[in-house]
Amino acid sequence: MGTLNTEFDTSVKRIAVVGGGSWATALIKIFSEGDQVKLNWWLRNKKDINHIRRYHSNPRYLGAVKIEPEKVTPYEDLREAIKNADTVMLAVPAAFIIEALGDLTAEDFKGKKIISTIKGMIPKQNILVTQYMEDVFGIPHDAIAVIGGPCHAEEVAMEKQSYLTVASSCNEYAESLADAMKCRFIKTATVDDLYGVEYCAVMKNIIAVACGVAHGLNYGDNFQAVLVSNALQEIKCFLKRAYNIERDLASSAYLGDLLVTTYSQFSRNRTFGNMIGRGYSVKAAQLEMEMIAEGYYASKSIYEINKDLGAEMPITTAVFHIIYERISPYVEFNILKNKLT
């Protein structure tokens, strides 16, 4: 864990955004609404960078979002992108974060604050993205924040009213970041439950896969309501053992994020699960989707973590069995439905 640093500049003035997907694009739009922040935007694809410079839009995702050149500077070199930034925002799938950061060192991150917007875990290592940044790059714990809450990138693009929560152990940093995000269609709140918000964001993707499987198997709304209500208890049980602090799971950063991911048409994890329930193999479903379903990786990570914690987690177990042990969704859900209340 990075050392605690009680004295650092909590202001957010220039952010280096790492990632070129739909959520990264939505975040670019959010932070561009005000005049407080300038953005360095690193994308892997050079053609995308050239397109953004010429046409001021992302050619792959959320093409209707206007990229303002006076506020956003695209970069091909990640080290250059973060050099003059005070804050680095991570917005790539968790499975690719190690590859994305490449040969960067702790020296590159010296004096930088970190924002994770990633709702997934580092596969195989089974650790949160924030823990990875602390362990590998020595980022001080209070210089890290997580952005969570019920907010689909597609609705941000349409400027539909959305709510986001900033979690950090440093209240001043959280407030500074939350203030930079506020705009006519984004409201913000802050909490100090960094790991709790992050774990919940990971686990809700597993539940969304389960809801998708249920829909694919032709279970109805009645069953899904029971599934989601049981899921909240499952999350509560896990968090009590993994990171037990006082928190209100009924707030939007927890329950809100769970609901939007399990019910929304925009949920890629629900879509992935629906395909599995309809008979797609895991590989076929992944190939057909153009975006990563974090629940695929998360189900294995949380399942393996829980071997030591021993929390009662029938939904996570069912998803793990279906995805990784290739048990029939029909068979697994016949077992699962008898464990729900």
Summarize, please:
The chain is α/β, with parallel strands linked by helices and about 350 residues long. Helix content is about 50%, strand content about 15%.
Descriptive keywords:
single chain; alpha/beta; Rossmann fold; N-(1-d-carboxylethyl)-l-norvaline Dehydrogenase, domain 2; eight-stranded mixed β-sheet; two-stranded antiparallel ribbon; globular; disordered N terminus
Number of domains: 2
- The CATH superfamily of the largest domain is identified as NAD(P)-binding Rossmann-like Domain
- Outline the biggest β-sheet: 8 strands, mixed
Oligomer: single chain
EC number: 1.1.1.94
Active site: 204
Binding site for NAD(+): 96, 153, 268
Catalytic activity: sn-glycerol 3-phosphate + NADP(+) = dihydroxyacetone phosphate + NADPH + H(+)
Question: Can you walk me through this structure?
Answer:
There is one protein chain. With 341 residues, this protein is α/β, with parallel strands linked by helices. The chain folds into 2 domains: 179 residues, Rossmann fold; 141 residues, N-(1-d-carboxylethyl)-l-norvaline Dehydrogenase, domain 2. Helix content is 49%, strand content 13%. The chain has 15 helices and 10 strands. The strands form 2 sheets. It has an 8-stranded mixed beta sheet with strand order 3-2-1-4-5-8-9-10, sandwiched between helices. The chain has a two-stranded antiparallel sheet with strand order 6-7. Strand 4, helix 4 and strand 5 form a beta-alpha-beta unit. Helix 8 runs parallel beside helix 10, helix 8 crosses helix 13 and helix 14 packs antiparallel against helix 15. The longest helix is centred in the middle third of the chain and has 23 residues. The protein is globular, with a radius of gyration of 19 Å.
